[in-house]
Amino acid sequence: MKTFVKTAMLGAALGVGAVLAAPAAYAQDSVYAPNLSYRTGPFAATGIPLMDGQRDYILMLNERDGGVNGVKIDYDECETGYSTEKGVECYEKTKSKAIVTQPWSTGITLQVLPKTNVDKIPILAPGYGFSPMANGKVFQWAYNPPASYWDGASMLLNYVSGGDMASLKGKKIALLHLDHPYGKEPIPLFQAMAEKHGFTFLPVPVGLKEMQNQSAQWLQIRREKPDFVFMWGWGAMNAGALTEAVKTKYPMDQFIGIWWSGHDGDMKTVGEKGKGYKSISWSVPVADAPVMADIKKHVVDAGKSLIGGADDMDTVFYQRGVLISMILVEGIRVAQDHFDTKVVNAEQLRWGLENLKIDDARIAELGMTGMVGPFSTSCSNHTGHSGAWILQWDGGKFAPISDKLTADAEAISALEQVKAMEYAEANAPWPVNEACK
Amino acid sequence: MDFLHSILIKPFADMVAAPDFLMQVLWEGLVSGVLYALIALGFVLIYKSSRIFNFAQGIMVVFAALTLVGLHEKGVHALLAVPLTLLVMLMLAVAIERVVLRPLVNQPDIILFMATIGITLFLIGFGELIFGGENKVMITEQLLIPTGSYTFEPFGGFLLIEQKDLTAVIGAIALVLILLLFLNRSKMGRAIRALGDDHQAALSVGISLSTIWVLVWFIAGVIALATGIVWGARAGVSFALDVIAYKALPVLMLGGLESVTGAIVGGLAIGILEKLFELYWGQPLLGGNTETWFAFVFALVILLFRPQGLFGEKIIERI
């Protein structure tokens, strides 16, 4: 009897606790936006500044404006450690009340992609994920604005060729990539472009256990003598590659990373020796942007941020995290206006994400001038293809050194169509919205 | 025919055609091998004395390296930070013996193995709480480790040897020699070996189990710090260092879990052979990244002929 009474009391206490805790999470004036974050594990060094930027932008909006049109955003993190299995668990755990899922890994994105069709939750994967997700007719619930990996690959080729792709004929280009779905993502595009433009493409995979000891990969690069090395690295792999590049004496200005391989924290390991290393980026850090001043005032100075100090705000990844949250918030705002409602649901957010109009005027209104290029999405175009810049490490920070680059839309679009249909056929029955209604 | 040529002739022809490149491959293999041997030694010492497979060896590398860098960031001089880090590792060894191992004496091996998984998870969480997850730069010049490089031109080619790799190799060899001397010549070392041979017999002659366990976990901590400095100098110090412990598993399979000589020979063999295979067979024929599996396949082939590993003890159990 005593045990029963104790159990009943404990149950009652938990019940009351849950009811008391509920208003914050389920309040009618908030929307729940979980983030499948990775602040721990081998990729934490990459994840932490990105998550900090995402979190601080939302906190700033909640503090400064009371959210979006008076609706607070309930930002929540579910830790995945960049593990696909944990990521899927986080998706399942959060999906019942989430209006969006932000998977933060190409592996997790590929796993939850079929589930979102059933659960009707939009995937938001800015600058990552599966490149054919750009095809909104096939991937109705997936969004990867403002640029996909294939955009990045195309722009890198555009940059090293000086705009004349014919000049790449006879050249050799190596891709040093993490041996993981993320790292393999640009390979189809590079292979197609190599065939079309007559250059040799050499993929050089790096295993998870080899991230910190890439001597074999860099010996291969030394032997093959590629004209350019592109890198699709993540976490500790970036620092490992930079150390080996310095050691191999590979010309730094011929070594260019994708936007996830251009992290200030990674460059600290090589410092001055990494001078000249480049990274393509769809975002540019602007220290004096008005939005950054607002984040500093409402979040950092108020002691609500998780960053180490105000200096961390000027890094590429922190500011990219801010932009990623901006894309989500703009989706919510557009949906609110269109559906004339304040608390949008997942289906309404889906409409918002495919009707984004981030033009120069809107970027200025957001206090983000210079931080990102204008882009817009549509039912058939879920990426937006904003373009990107080349940033170069000057020994202390990354700074833009190119005009805005654009991708070869024609080549990418054709490949997106082919690969999207291949995916749909391989996962049949897969709903396709051919009419885009 | 082309296929056979690419497997049997071409790799060797490439080695002869570019001997400087072969020397570079062998050097890089030697450096990796010495480091694998070092990690494997940490496993072997604990297994020898307590029959525990220490799953926490990898995270101890991270913890030791982060403590060293963390202390230096707090303003402690690098040369003082090293003994302080060793003190932290000693405290960790004492805590593990008191809190985890002592209550589990006489429990089956699998329970003790599971306990080391628990230690791993605790150290990951505790480490992230204290040090954060960001990549940190390993102190090298402050530890008087030279960071330049030597270049040679053998056979008219090019061979580059980094001073910090050379220091790592010399340091690791010195550490191994000191350990061997300690294990074979000192009273405590003999006690560790006695405990490894027979727990009951060792206890009956007055060897203290608690003291020896603290000692071997501390020695594993010393090895972890040395490994952390060397690997951290290559690509920074972060929780990604944890995965390098897995590189020691095939070394243990190959050398035998209870053999110090096996750890050294196994580490060197795997380090050199996996580099040779990757560069001359893996990359040209299999698309590369064979280092992730080569060592395991190689160790499995050896186990077919010597199930106890190259230097492991042949265990015969009466039924």
Task: Please describe what this structure looks like.
The complex is a heterodimer of chains A (437) and B (319). In chain A, 44% of the residues lie in helices and 12% in strands. In chain A, the strands form four sheets. In chain A, strands 6-5-7-8-9-12-13 form a seven-stranded mixed β-sheet, sandwiched between helices. Chain A is built from 15 helices and 13 strands. Chain A folds into two domains: 30-148 and 286-387 and 418-426, Rossmann fold; 150-285 and 391-413, 3-Layer(aba) Sandwich (Rossmann fold), CATH 3.40.50.2300. In chain A, α8 (215-224) crosses α9 (236-248). With 437 residues, chain A is α/β, with parallel strands linked by helices. Chain B is mainly alpha-helical and 319 residues long. Chain B has a domain at 39-253. Chain B contains 13 helices and two strands. In chain B, strands 1-2 form a two-stranded antiparallel ribbon. In chain B, α5 crosses α10 (209-235). Classes of the chains: A alpha/beta (437), B mainly alpha (319).
Strand content of chain B: under 5%
**Basic shape of chain A:** globular
Show unreliable segments of chain A. 1-10, 12-27
Q: Note the overall shape of chain B.
A: globular
Q: C-alpha Rg of chain B, in Å?
A: 21 Å
Main attributes of the structure:
heterodimer; A: 437 residues; alpha/beta; Rossmann fold; 2 domains; seven-stranded mixed beta sheet; two-stranded parallel ribbon; disordered N terminus; B: 319 residues; mainly alpha; two-stranded antiparallel ribbon; globular
